[in-house]
Structures are given as C-alpha cells and as structure tokens.
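Example for tutorial group B:
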C-alpha cells in the first residue's frame, strides 16, 4: 500500500509530519535527497527540513544523486531505506537527474512495496504523471538534458505548491489559469500537506 506525505514547505508543516509519523509508526530512518536545490540560489529550506527530521530523532542519510556517480550505490540505498524524502528546488533539474540514473521505475516500485515517500515542492510535483505544467514556476532551461517530462505517476493529481505564497503568488496563479481545465491540480499553501494512504487522499492544514 502506498503512503505519501506531500507538501510545499516541509518545515512549515512539521507538526503535521510528526502526527503522520506517529500514526504510521514510521521507522525513524530517512534517505534525504537534496538534489533539486543544486541549481537554486536559495536553499535554506533544505537545512530546515533536515532540522525537522533531527528534532524527531530520525537517522538522516543525505544522498545527492547528481554527485554520486555510482548508480548501483544510489539504487542500493533506495532499496534499503524505509522512508525517502525528496526536497524542493528546480523540478526539471530533479527529474533530469532521476532519469539519468533510471531511478523512476525503482522509486515507483518501492512506493508500491511500502516505502514511505516524503516530497516537498519539487519532490511533491514529481509524483504526478508529468511535470511540464510547472514550467511557469520553474525554469526548465536549467535541465538542458531533459527531453520529456513524464514523472513518477503514483498519484492521480498534480501538486501546485506555494499557492498564492511569496514569491510564487503570480506564477502559482498563472499555472492554475493555464492548467485548471486540463489537470487535476491540487493547490497547496505552505501550511498544508496532502496525505496519501492507499487510495485515500486527505489535505490537512497546520492549526
């Protein structure tokens, strides 16, 4: 059964994640993928996410899939981890690096085997069928080797993160205007998370 925790801003929904972790009795070990931040100027949210895991006494193993040249090492770590966290950053660059190591089929398989998937912003967007809709918010030119945009396709919706949140007020609303009629957009503010358990999807808000 698939179990996912998807959000715009992990540090802002730390209280929701704590409840989620307790309810699902998560094994406190996570493989932490910060790769999407490699091409971003601002990455404080990555350190903030690590701090959330540390506060909850998770054992965190950081793995930048762009820097680790050995595909077998990356695959072995993904096979072993009970929880996979993928950070925010540039969604197109993230997808490019996942495709370079042919990791999408493995992640999809592990999710269906019971690995818990935790995705923040870009990490949430790639759970959809295709990420092209995010080209208004993210610069796809930062992924010069990416030629098509099919993603994990483990949910039947497309996360639109940072809904009306600074500095994405304009780009999030432009994305909604362009794709609301074509896609099942799930708009998330920075204080919301969507929890997927099997075929059940619930959006929760920080109180």
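The residue assignment follows.
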């Amino acid at each position: 059964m698939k179990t996912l925790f998807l959000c715009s801003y992990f540090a802002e929904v730390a209280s929701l994640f704590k409840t989620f972790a307790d309810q699902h009795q998560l094994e406190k070990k996570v493989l932490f993928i910060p790769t999407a931040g490699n091409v971003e100027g601002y990455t404080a949210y990555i350190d903030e996410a690590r701090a959330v895991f540390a506060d909850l006494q998770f054992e965190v193993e950081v793995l930048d899939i762009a820097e680790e040249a050995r595909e077998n090492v990356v695959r072995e770590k993904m096979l072993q981890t009970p929880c996979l966290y993928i950070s925010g950053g540039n969604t197109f660059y993230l997808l490019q690096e996942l495709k370079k190591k042919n990791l999408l089929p493995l992640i999809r398989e592990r999710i269906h085997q019971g690995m818990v998937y935790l995705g923040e912003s870009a990490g949430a967007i790639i759970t959809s069928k295709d990420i092209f809709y995010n080209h208004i918010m993210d610069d796809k030119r930062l992924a010069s080797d990416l030629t098509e945009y099919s993603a994990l396709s483990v949910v039947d919706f497309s996360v639109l993160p940072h809904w009306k949140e600074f500095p994405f007020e304009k780009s999030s609303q432009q994305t909604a205007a362009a794709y609301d009629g074509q896609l099942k957009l799930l708009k998330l503010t920075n204080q919301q998370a969507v929890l997927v358990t099997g075929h059940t999807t619930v959006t929760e808000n920080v109180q």
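The chain has one domain: 3-205. Compare this with the pattern of hydrophobic and polar residues in the output above.
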